[in-house]
Please model this.
Amino acid sequence: MKMTGAQILCEGLTREGVEVIFGFPGGVVLPLYDTLPHYPQLRHVLVRHEQGAAHAADGYARATGKVGVCLATSGPGATNLVTGIANAYLDSSPMVAITGQVARPLIGKDAFQEIDITGITLPITKHNYLVPDAASMARIVKEAFYLARTGRPGPVLIDVPRDVFVEQAEFHYPNQVKLPGYRPTLKGHPEQVKKAAKLLNEAQQPVLLAGRGIIISGACDELRYLAETAQIPVVTTLLGIGCFPESHALSYGMLGMHGMAYANLAINGADVILAIGMRFDDRATGKVAGFAPRAKIIHVDIDPAEIGKNVRVDIPIVGDARTVLKELNKLAAPAQHMDWVRQLDDWRKEHPSTVIRDCEELLPQYVIRQIYEVTQGRATIVTGVGQNQMWSAQHYFYERPNSLISSGGLGTMGFELPAAMGAKIGRPDEPVWCVAGDGGFQMTIQELATIVQEKAAVKIAIINNGYLGMVRQWQELFYGKRYVATPLTCPDFVRIAEAYCISALRVRQKAEVAPAIEQAMADPGPFLIDFMVAPEENVYPMVPPGASLVELVEDPGKAARVAPDSAKLPVSDM
Model:
């Protein structure tokens, strides 16, 4: 049966299980938009800016485990997707971005709204396609989704010339993909796995360092089995948060620049580290020369390019985290490591990184902790980058994978609001909180209109300190308090929310925090709370740039009396 290129594309999307497309129309994609009403199973979400489409698709993908899909027209529509595509690439989010292109005879002639989007996105996609004809469309769609979701997931771009949308071809959707040059290694080399098990079984002070790869591969149960069987403490990266319950007795939180002091000390004192599904990012390692000076390192990752790239590795294992852990668990010897665990518990008491000091000012940490208390830890938290991100990572406690969705590798301001919308559309029955800074929120504030139009009941907490907070913190600590271009004049967020027909409150006092959160949770629609917090509060602990993980600076107010409800939540039985 003959179909147009637009029909073949929609058929392919349907067969790949796509339910939602985040997009914005334009001239060259009008044939596709004219076709969409014939495919009611494809829900189109009209964003207000294409960057919002890419971030929403990313948030949707992380919340659901499905491939997120975004759609834009040629030229500026396509380039507006770039930041979101790069964000998905660095954080290994499965995404297919579809862009329109000028008609084939006009390509290379600087036609109106022509841009070489395949060239632009070459470094930030797993692969990209310029569709040559309608007859190639089905194969390309099949390959794109296969590439996006397999191996190390990531974004794939399909660029479609306008005349290909209307060109007709016979429709044959392939049953399988044949890509001889693309064969992800899933099973770790048996001899390497044996070496890793032997080293781990002989360790006296081992640590499991878990990243987002655990979540992507669905290896949370396997990680927990290994930790409990061999009694090994677990430390996570920022994007690995949620892969291991933070209430667990063997959980020691996030490491890195703003990680828990005791997590960094654990890495420094370890004699063996099993790092799984993480890439030794500089924010996690600090000064590489001082990273884990005593440890033999086992590194498991599905992407061979990541192994040995940043940190020396004693036993490299290329493979899927879940598959490798299953084999490793067969060889894991039951152990205790009582003295080592006791040492980490002592460090946790000596360096209570999650304790919030008691003071009259409204502290942002207190706001995050109250969101945790009111939601009972059952919400999905979505952040951008900066202080709001770090406080959310530190002071909300996560028990489930993908309950923290954040911009890690790229550190994208403005990610939070559209990504929270995507997450809510993907998880309509779960509370979704967008935690935003007053700076990042204004970068994609227009997506409030999309949230209202789609009836997405996102709850929004603006941590409003009147600064670009993380940059200001660096200016305070390293640039003599010269606050250049960081003081921020903000609009009245409550009135703006109300202009979008969103219920909103402003909170200035500690006593108002919990009632406001409860009111937001009780409201059936979207809700915004503008939290006016202490303007110059800093994120601690902090590892200064160029320092090793143990050269950290802790909260200078640590000696102050702490609030009685601010201790680390009780650990569960193992």
Observations:
- The two ends are 59 Å apart (CA to CA).
- Residues 84 and 242 are 23 Å apart (CA to CA).
- Confidence is low (pLDDT under 50) at residues 559-574.
